[in-house]
Amino acid sequence: MTEPASVRTAIKSSAFSTFVYSLCLAPFDVVKNTQISSVTRMNPLQTATILVKKTGLKTLWRGLISSSISTFSSNIVYYPCYEYFKPKFLSLSESWGCGFAALASRLIAVITTLPIERLRTSIQGTGIGEFKITFNGLKVTLYRDMIFSFTYFTLYENSYKKLKNDNPLMARTYSSFFGSLISAIITHPFDVIKTKIQTRYCCFNEYDKNTLKAVSSLYKEEGLKGLFTGAQPRISKITIGLVIYMNLYEKFKKL
Question: What domains lie within the chain, and their CATH numbers?
Fold first, then answer.
C-alpha cells in the first residue's frame, strides 16, 4: 500500500506533480481532442503535423493555462480527498477500499472543476473557448472519471502492495502503467462522448441526455472505430503521465 499522507502534504505533492504533468503532456491532449472534435479521420502524427503547419509548434500547447488550472484544481481536490477517504474505506474492505475512496474523491473533484474542464477541452479541441458556468457533459464526465478512478486505484494499490518489497520504484511504475492502461481503454468511449458534447454541443446535445444511449448511438453511427477515436494519444498520455505523476507524488510526500 502506498504511504498515507496528511491533507497538507498531499496538496503540496499534488501541486508540483501536476505542474510537470501538464507541461510535458499537453500535446497529447491537444491531438486527442482535435481528432475527436474534427470531422476528418487522421492518425495522431498526421493530426499533430497539420496543427504545427497551420499555426506553429506552439499550437501543441494551446490551452496550456486552462489545462494546467483544470488539472491543478482537480488534483488538489482529488488527492487530498483520496488520502482522507482511503483509511476509512480500507477499514471496510482491504481489496476494494482504495477503489471506493478514489470513486468518492473523483465525484467531489469533477463537480468542483467541471466548468474549467469544459473550457480546457473546448480550447484544445477547437482553438476557441470561453469561461462560463455550465454542466454540459457532466453525466458522461462522471461516468468516465469515476469508473477510471475506481479501476485505476483498485489495480494500482493492490498490485503495488504485492510488488513493493522487491523494488518500490519499479513496483510503483509497473502498477501505475498497468492500472492506467486498463482504465484508459475501458473509459475511452466516454471520453469521446464528453469531447463531442463539450466541443460541438449544438450537434451532439442529444448525447448529453443519456450517456449509455449515446455510446450505443455512436457505435451504430461510426462503429468501434468511432468509440476509440483519439485513443492512441489519450492512452499514451495517461499511461506515461500517471507513471511520472505517481512517482513524483509519492516522492514529494516524503519531503
Answer: 7-253 (1.50.40.10)
